[in-house]
Amino acid sequence: MLVILACLAILGVIWSLISGAVKVNPVEIAKILVGMKGDNYEIIWNIRLPRTIVAVLVGVSLSVSGALLQGVMRNSMADPHIIGVSSGAGLFGIGVLILFPTYAYLLTPIAFLGAMGAAIMIYMLAWQGGANPLRVILAGVAVSALLNSGISALLTFYSDRVGGALLFLVGGLSARSWPHVEILLPYTLGGTLLALLGSQRMNIMGLGDIQAKALGMRVEANKLYFTAIATLLAASAVSIVGLLGFVGMLVPHAARLLIGSDYRWMLPACVLLGIAVMTISDIVSRLILAPIELPVGIVMGVLGAPFFLYLLRKKGI
Fold it and tell me: Where do the TM regions start and end (predicted)?
């Protein structure tokens, strides 16, 4: 199954490089990637390639983040966007873009602070002798609504500065370039590596708090650790592409159905499936109304909202 998912991820990347207003055949792309300049060198090297790499990194970050949050909260509906973590990153991120644009280079660490603050707030609101998964979702929805109100207030009071924040609200990959790759790459690689190294501990946490404590695990410390990794991954992705929803819910759930709940296998599956979903969604956003380009966040919303309703119905909530 991992081999199949790897092939799907590679197909998504190649298709992303080929597709667009100008059709470029795979042979020419291969030549450009090894350093041979051609007629479409600028299109591939400076436009499509960095955009595709950003799509890959964002897909990995949000998918792994969602998988960790679902494991920590033991709820398959947990997602950085739905439970409010992305909204915390979004509020701080938009605050920087609108109020302090000269500090835009600090967007990722500031977005992380917002995401971590939202996660802690949700956990505190949901705590009642333990964090019940349903209370976490409900607290997350409430916190998300509160933070989104803050975003709306900023956009209302500073309407003359909204231009750069509009795409941030929807989530998009348009005009993403090599500097964005350089910003996102270390966060994605570092966070994903830490998640993979902790996969066995995630499996133990899946047994439940009582069993995990009986095995000698410091449950709350590990929950905080993995929540921090998840929020770092989500915040780094949000700081680059904006409030992109549902990737962190849809991909881990699909990976769990295909691979099972063992995090040693599920996390690599999330990485590969996240790449495939993100690149293919970006292709759809570029081609469905060509030459007009939709923000990829709209495509993910169309895919993710019915899936979320399906999970709600399946759980009988």
Answer: 44-69, 81-100, 106-125, 137-158, 178-197, 224-251, 263-280, 292-312
CA angle 44, 47, 48 (to 5 degrees): 60
CA angle 281–282–284, rounded 5-degree value: 65
Instruction: Classify residue 6: in a domain, yes or no.
Output: no
Count CB atoms within 10 A of the CB of residue 120: 15
Determine what percent of the chain is predicted with pLDDT higher than 90: 29
Helical H runs in the chain? Answer: 2-18, 26-33, 41-43, 49-73, 85-99, 107-126, 133-157, 163-170, 178-197, 199-205, 209-214, 219-241, 247-259, 263-287, 296-315
Q: What confidence tier does 163 reach under pLDDT thresholds 50, 70, 90? A: low
Q: What rounded mean pLDDT belongs to the chain? A: 85
Give the domain extent around 267. 26-315
Span 187-244, pLDDT tens digits: 999 999 999 999 999 999 888 888 988 988 888 888 889 988 998 898 889 888 888 8
pLDDT, tens digit, for every residue of 118-134?
A: 888 887 887 776 666 67
Question: For residue 267, what is the domain's CATH number?
Answer: 1.10.3470.10
Does some domain include residue 262? yes
Q: For 114, what's the count of Cα atoms within 13 Å in the CB-facing half-sphere?
A: 30
3-state SS class at 293: coil
pLDDT tens per residue, range 37-48:
877 888 888 889
Looking at the predicted structure, is the pLDDT value of residue 316 above 60?
A: no
Dihedral pair phi/psi, residue 76, rounded to 5°: -70, -10
Measuring CA to CA, which residue among 72, 94, 125, 48 is closest to residue 235? 94
Asked if residue 102 is part of any domain, the answer here is yes
Structurally, the chain folds into a number of domains equal to 1
Which amino acid appears at position 242 of this protein?
A: G
